[in-house]
């Protein structure tokens, strides 16, 4: 009788393990494969903005989805001209608050107006336009102008020589 009890005691944990690991409801574990984090450009699209608001080269970003607090980091400062009209400058880190169709309290992005650099403090999507505010003034542009990400140093019209210069001198400017 003692031998039978010992065998039964030894087999019970083994049987219990087999039951636990083969039972679909008990053995199922959450997927341990991490989901890839979306890029900063994909996050912009989730908030109804075109990717071209950010130049190429974001190396990291932070987003608090509850407050909308965000920051995006580049390898250094970034500046370029668009279509020969506007000169833009991005500091190595930009930050602000994002919500559906609105970037507010922006820091780190400026545009040259005449001879002065002014900070862009807000971007708002209005249908097929983006409105940019520098505080006391603003301007609207078609959203189609922002489908492509500009390149630091040369904007949207980069030649191979300009791209090579940007690669060797990441803080190069186009002006």
Q: Can you describe this structure?
A:
InterPro entries: At5g01610-like, DUF538. Residues 1-27 form the signal peptide. Keywords: Signal. With 175 residues, the chain is α+β, with helices and mostly antiparallel strands. The protein has a single domain (40-168), classed as At5g01610-like (at5g01610, DUF538 DOMAIN, Roll), CATH 2.30.240.10. It has four helices and nine strands, in the order H-H-H-E-E-E-E-E-E-E-E-E-H. Strands 1, 2, 3, 4, 5, 6, 7, 8 and 9 form a nine-stranded antiparallel beta sheet that branches. It starts with a helix and ends in a 7-residue tail after the last helix.
Strands, count: 9
Number of domains: 1
Radius of gyration: 27 Å
Largest sheet geometry: 9 strands, antiparallel
Structure summary:
The chain is α+β, with helices and mostly antiparallel strands and 175 residues long. The protein has helices at residues 2-22, 24-27, 40-46, 160-168, and strands at 60-63, 69-73, 78-82, 86-99, 102-113, 116-119, 122-126, 129-133, 138-142.
What topology does this entry show?
Elements lengths: L1 H21 L1 H4 L12 H7 L13 E4 L5 E5 L4 E5 L3 E14 L2 E12 L2 E4 L2 E5 L2 E5 L4 E5 L17 H9 L7
Antiparallel strand pairs: 1-2, 2-4, 3-4, 4-5, 5-6, 5-7, 7-8, 8-9
Give structural attributes.
175 residues; alpha+beta; at5g01610, DUF538 DOMAIN; 9-stranded antiparallel sheet; 23% helix; 34% strand; disordered N terminus; disordered C terminus
């Amino acid at each position: 009788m003692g031998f039978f009890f010992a065998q039964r005691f030894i087999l019970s944990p083994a049987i219990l393990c087999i039951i636990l690991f083969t039972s679909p409801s008990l053995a199922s574990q959450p997927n341990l494969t991490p989901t890839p984090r979306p890029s900063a450009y994909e996050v912009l699209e989730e908030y109804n903005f075109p990717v071209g608001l950010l130049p190429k080269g974001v190396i990291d970003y932070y987003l608090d989805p509850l407050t909308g607090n965000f920051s995006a980091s580049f390898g250094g400062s970034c500046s370029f001209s668009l279509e020969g009209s506007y000169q833009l400058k991005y500091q190595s880190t930009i930050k602000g608050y994002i919500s559906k169709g609105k970037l507010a309290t922006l820091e780190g992005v400026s545009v040259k107006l005449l001879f002065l650099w002014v900070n862009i403090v807000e971007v708002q999507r209005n249908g097929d336009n983006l409105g940019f505010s520098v505080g006391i003034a603003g301007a609207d542009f078609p959203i189609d102008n922002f489908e492509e990400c500009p390149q630091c140093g040369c904007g949207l019209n980069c030649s191979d020589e300009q791209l090579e210069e940007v690669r060797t001198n990441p803080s190069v400017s186009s002006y």
